[in-house]
Amino acid sequence: MSSRRSRSRQSGVNSRITEDQINDLVSKLQQLLPEIRERRSDKVSAAKVLQETCNYIRSLHREVDDLSGRLSELLATTDTAQAALIRSLLLQ
Amino acid sequence: MASWLHYPLVDEDPDLDQSFCADLLYPTPNQSTTTSNTNTNTILRTSAVTELRPTVTAGASRPPIPPARRTELADSKGQNFVHFSRQKASFDGRLDQTEPSSSKSMVVVRESTVVDSSDTPGVAPESWERSASDIGDRGCGTMSCGALAGTCSAGAGGKEMMTCEVSVTSSPGCSCASPEPVLKPPAEDRKRKGREAEEAECHSECGPTLVRGLVRQDVEFESVEAKKQVRGSTSTKRSRAAEVHNLSERRRRDRINEKMRALQELIPRCNKSDKASMLDEAIEYLKSLQLQVQMMSMGCGMVPMMFPGVQQYMPAMGMGLGMGMGMEMGINRPMMPFPNLLAGSALPTPTAAAHLGPRFPIPAFHVPRVPAPDPSRSQATNQSEQMLNSLGTQHTGQPRFPTFVDPYQQYIATHQIQLPFQQNQALAQPSSSKPSSSKGPENLNNH
């Protein structure tokens, strides 16, 4: 651990975080990514995982935006009483 | 012989060494005279050496001695020779050779000629010896002069050339040390070229010592050089490998850092400069986003389902929910068949809102991309099942969920009765905490 720490000079930002921790987190992150998880290959570079994470987050953002737009549209078209009720419920 | 010897000298000044020197010095740039001199002297030398050869072969231990004697002889007429050699050196400098090397070559020449001349005493009279030595000196001088004036790189065959070449090739790397050992053999070479091959014995007497010395020197140089090279090559190889590794490592780190920055921009309110916490945050945010999308898609799909008039969309809805369930089973890519579902905008029931409520803090009509408060996947599963159950109970007896597999149908069928209660519960506690809502089915089973 300590020997690896000396090796992992992570460009000054944080030198205390060990590479093992980073690797654990990256593999954890990898499990959340459908693109990489479907590949079933253990040999994925950290940069690739991060790149896929970025892509995935962007796609999720798009979906959330889309969904929120649809939901708001949906709620806007409901009658006022129900919309008020829903809004009160959602805002809780 | 004497006539041959004096013939070139007679032209200018037979006895004066100075004049001889001058004769040698000034015509040297002129190629024709020097070459002619060389030729005559070559013949001279040939005859002289043929006579000398027996003694040379007889006395093997002779060669080391003569140089001392020759120094005396050289001293007697040294002025001329030293002067000559010095001038030669300057001339050599013009011939693209370094001065020290040329002077050394002269020394070598002188020594070797001395060996030849000093071998004679036992056989030849003193005068002849003198003349022989003279011949040697002058011949050598002219010969070397001619050779130098001619071409230094002229292919002079023989063993000398071989050794010379060997020495040259054996020390390829030592550029600073090579001039000495490399340039000496050429001097030998030139002399040898002048004498031709019949001098082999004499040369084998005097040459080997020189050559051996040179070779020894060369070997030393070579060994040192080889050691240096070996050490240098391994170290350079290692350093180069390390450099390459460093470079690739740095590139990799740069890539990772770049992606990290991109990730940091994508994650809201992420002011962590720490890599690990950045990744932690990214993981949490990803999870929350996944859940949010899942919930919203379900919520969106739920809305029309609550409406009795939109049953034609039920298959699509079921598929969408099925995908939602599949997402938890590993496909994880939420697919939302919303366009069809939302075509008929219907009134959402409070049930759906209640289910969405704790998960989706929707201010006004906009759903912000905020991370859910630490949701977990299993809870999401339970809740979606719960929602599915509620849906199933609401539309009992209606044709729906054709894409669902039997286990779900069974599950829904078993829980159909309890669902009104669940709906009431959800209405009563819209902001119910996750554990209670996730425990919903079990509680319902107990009821």
Written overview of the protein:
By secondary structure, chain A is an all-alpha fold. Chain A has five helices and no strands. In chain A, helix 2 (19-32) packs across helix 4. The model of chain A is unreliable at 1-14 (pLDDT under 50). Chain B has helices at residues 2-10, 17-25, 31-58, 66-76, 78-94, 99-118, 126-149, 159-170, 179-195, 200-266, 275-305, 314-329, 338-341, 350-356, 377-394, 406-415, 419-428, 434-438, 440-446. Chain B starts with a helix and ends with a helix. Chains A and B meet through helix 2, helix 4 and helix 5 of A and helix 10, helix 11 and helix 14 of B. Chain A: It holds the Pfam family bHLH_ILI. Chain A: One of its GO terms (molecular function) is protein dimerization activity. Chain A: Keywords: Growth regulation, Nucleus, Transcription, Transcription regulation. Chain A: Residues 6-60 form the BHLH domain.
Q: How is the main sheet of chain A built?
A: none
Unreliable residue stretches of chain B? 1-226, 307-368, 370-447
Query: What's the number of structural domains of chain A?
Result: 1
Overall mean confidence score, pLDDT of chain B: 47
Question: Quick one: overall form of chain B?
Answer: rod-shaped
Query: Which stretches of chain A are low in confidence, meaning pLDDT under 50 for 5 or more residues running?
Result: 1-14
Mean pLDDT of chain A: 71
State the distance separating the first and last CA atoms of chain A.
46 Å
Q: Total number of helical segments of chain B? A: 19
Global Rg of chain A: 21 Å
What is the oligomeric state here?
A: heterodimer
Q: Which two protein chains have the largest interface (Cβ within 8 Å of the partner's Cβ), and how many residues from each?
A: A-B, 51 and 60 residues
Q: What is the general shape of chain A?
A: elongated
Tell me the major beta sheet of chain B: none
Q: What's the helix count of chain A?
A: 5
Structural class of chain B: mainly alpha
Subcellular location (chain B): Nucleus
Biased composition (Basic and acidic residues) (chain B): 186-201
Keywords (chain B): Nucleus, Transcription, Transcription regulation
GO molecular function, one term (chain B): DNA-binding transcription factor activity
